[in-house]
Amino acid sequence: MRKQNSEFKTAFTSEADCDLKNTDYFGFVELDDYACYVVADGIDDQLDAVSARLAVAAAISAFSEAPSIGKRTMRACLNAANHALIKETGSKKKLKASVIIVVTDYMKIRYGQAGNVRLRLYRDGFVRYQSTDQSLTMDMVKEEKVEPDKVAIHEERNNLYAYLGQEKEFHPYISKKIKLANTDAVALYTRGIWENIDEGELGDVYAEASNEPQELVDNVEELLLSRQPDNLGKYTFVTLFVNKVFTDPNKKRRIRRVVMTIVVILVLIIAAAVVLTILHNRRIRKIEQMEQGYLDTIEYIQIDNYARAQECCDKALELAKNLRDRTMTKQLGDYQKLIESVLAAQEHMDGQRYAEAQKAYKEAAVRSIYVDSTGLDYINDRLALTADYIAVYDLINLGDSLAFNLQYEKAEEKYLEAKTLAGQLYFDDGRKTAIEALEKLYEDQKAEKEAEEADRKEQLEQQEAGANYVSQGDAAFAQGDYEGAKVYYLSAQQLYNDMGEQAQQLAAEEKLQVTEEKLQEREQLKEEAQQYVQEAEEAAQEKEYLAAKKYYLLAKDVYASVKMEDKVEEITRKMERLDIKLEEQEEDITEKNTEENTAEDNAENTAQEQSPEMVSE
User: Fold this and answer.
1) Angle at Cα 53 formed by Cα 72 and Cα 22, nearest 5°?
2) Could you give the number of structural domains in the chain?
3) 36 and 101 in contact (C-beta within 8 Å)?
4) What's the sign of the alpha-carbon dihedral 312, 317, 320, 326?
5) Residue 257 covered by a domain
6) Cα 180 to the chain's mean position, in Å?
7) Per residue in 342-396, pLDDT tens?
8) Would you report the helix, strand and coil content of the chain in percent, each value rounded to 5?
9) Residue 103 bridge partners (DSSP)
10) Same domain for 227 and 96?
């Protein structure tokens, strides 16, 4: 469709050299929407060279498969031409060629080049655009080592760094799109032309050209042949007249759509820019807040206000995480760990857990190393203060141990040392604890003295009681009350035993032993007296009243010796009755003497009758 509404005319000439060898080749294809023009210059010396033909055929074939004016299509055409030469080489000499490919959509053109086949675009008789050879000579021109008008005869003009047939590092040149205008003319030509006709002369030909491209080609060839060069080589010249460029009927609508699209895109871009600006400003504010929080954290640590430092650090750390600032996150994390360690130590200090506080401060000192030793002086001061607090309680504990072992003077000394140290440290809790320990010590001493006084008093009372028991025992012993003495001596012995008074206990035991002996003696005397009583009674039964009285007297003496007054009285009463019987017996004996036999018999009968009565009494 584009081809029908545009006018592109093509003409060319391609001739062999004096040896009738032509290794140039030109081919083109014009499709409805795209066209492709290819000129190749074979670099091989074979008479039947095919490198240029193969390159042109491969390039046009690749273009026809996917016609386009894009860079990807151009690169595909160049690579196809290069691969065709590499594949065809086989065991023969390597095939090489220079090439230039021009593609168009009948509104613009794009060209791709490898080597020194040239392109020139003329507009209104002037050169609008021209290609640059990929040769060492052209690089030297750029470096101003060779004059531009000397390129055609320079010895390195055919020393190429990009050409078809390269197996490695094939880097052809691909141009941008070039917009065409009506009456533009494009010239494509090989070195046989540009080595013999300079650019100025070629420009003059195009400046005087008519609307027929073949006429221009003939004029160029005539100019070349008129020079009659000595070694005229093969040459190819192609011209493309752009008499009319395709005008898109939907261009205005597309432009309108493009404009609307651009407007929408611009609005979106502006909106995005506004949003990005807002987000950027927010980010800047967050960064500023984070940095300020970081500085505030350090300042609060330096003035030992770790509670405020923690607030600032937590906020700054949260901002750093939101901003994904790893460096600041790491630094603030180190400060956070330091602050947490110090606050934990302070909490232990407030709870009077000084050993745990000391451990936490040591950990904080280690954490401080990771933040350039920030707060280390404060931590060291707190460590020293903690050590002093611990020393105060160590002194108090040592005093407690001494007091427990009744070493009150040494305990008092340790308590006073603890009190003095706590006062120097302004350690109120430690000082209060030391004072309480001293007061308790003094109370314990007072209670102990009172207990000792009570013990002493009790001991004196017990001593007095023991002495009283012994005295009462002695009195009872002196009175012959051996049972009573025994009771007193036993009480004294038990009391002295409880008191631990061994000497006095032994003395009481000796008295008790003597008393026991006296009791045994008394028992023996009682048994002896009882025996006398029994014999007296037996004698009385036999009416031997005098013998009975004698035994009663013996028993009475024995009872009197052991101070058994009740028995003495009992024996006395028995003796009184015995005296009565004895008188009666004497009266009977008198009567008996008076009355001889009868009275004697009567007396015997009377005696027999009275005898049971006496026995009964």
Assistant:
1) 135
2) 5
3) yes
4) positive
5) yes
6) 71
7) 999 888 888 888 888 889 889 989 988 888 888 888 889 888 888 887 888 788 8
8) 65, 10, 20
9) 36, 110
10) yes
Quick one: pLDDT at residue 175? 96
- pLDDT recorded at residue 608: 60
302 and 404 together in one domain: no
Give the sign of the dihedral formed by CA 491, CA 493, CA 496, CA 498: negative
CA distances from 116 to 14, 80, 164, 385 (A): 16, 19, 11, 89
Query: The domain containing residue 607 runs over which residues?
Result: 525-616
Question: How far is it between the farthest Cα atoms of the chain?
Answer: 238
Burial of 72 (0-12, 13-18, 19+ CB in 10 A): exposed
Choosing from 501, 523, 545, the residue where a domain stops is 523
Whole-number Å distance between alpha carbons of 243 and 245: 7
Q: What is the DSSP string of 385-431?
A: HHHHHHHHHHHHHHHHHHHHTT-HHHHHHHHHHHHHHHHHTT-HHHH
- The mean per-residue pLDDT over the stretch 73-101 comes to 87
Q: Residue 185 is inside which H or E element, if any?
A: strand 184-189
Looking up tokens 């006296």 gives: 518
pLDDT of residue 558: 82
Report the candidate in 440, 446, 390 with the shortest Cα–Cα distance to residue 415: 440
Residue 588, CB half-sphere, CA atoms under 13 Å: how many?
A: 19
Question: Is 291 strand, coil or helix?
Answer: helix
pLDDT score for 552: 81
What pLDDT is attached to residue 616?
38
> 426: part of which helix (H) or strand (E)?
none
Looking at the DSSP assignment, which residues form a beta bridge with residue 120?
A: 130, 187
Q: Are the C-beta atoms of residues 36 and 29 closer than 8 Å to each other?
A: yes
Mean pLDDT of 245-257: 77
Q: Print the SS3 string covering 82-134.
A: HHHHHHHHCCCCCCCEEEEEEEECCCEEEEEEECCCEEEEEECCEEEEECCCC
Q: What are phi and psi of 141, to 5 degrees?
A: -65, -45
Give me 345's structure tokens. Answer: 């130590």
For residue 559, which phi and psi values (nearest 5 degrees)?
Answer: -60, -35
Residue 162's H or E segment, with its range, is none
- What is the value of pTM for the model shown? 0.47
CB of 69 within 8 A of CB of 177? yes
Nearest to 312 by CA among 335, 288, 296, 291: 296
Report the DSSP pairing between strands 235-244 and 7-15: antiparallel
Is there a domain that residue 175 lies in?
yes
Res 318 pLDDT > 80: yes
Amino acid identity at 85: L
Residue 31: CB atoms within 10 A of its CB come to 14
CA dihedral 161, 162, 165, 171 (to 10 degrees): 120
pLDDT per residue over 447-494, tens digit each?
A: 777 777 777 777 777 777 777 877 887 887 777 777 777 787 788 778
Q: 351 with 326, same domain?
A: yes
